[in-house]
Amino acid sequence: MSAVIAVLAGALILVGVVYDTARLVAPAEPRIPPLARLRGRRPALEAAEQRCAGLRLRGRIDAETYQRRMSLLAHGRRTAPRHTSERST
Fold this sequence. Notes:
The chain is an all-alpha fold and 89 residues long. It is 64% helix and 0% strand.
């Protein structure tokens, strides 16, 4: 009986390790846009704001990235332009 419990505990630990590793490797945001975009511009911006706040609360983005994204959302844009100064040329 104790062997069964040990095997189950080991399996749960292994599943937890695989899950955590997959979350670290996965991209921070999904590639497919949310369905809020189909409802219109304002709901899409609100959904993007909620996603950004969620990423910040979970520690997936830093404070500077959070401020930049929220500033873009405040100006009605969801993504940064491709010609920003962040790119090293």
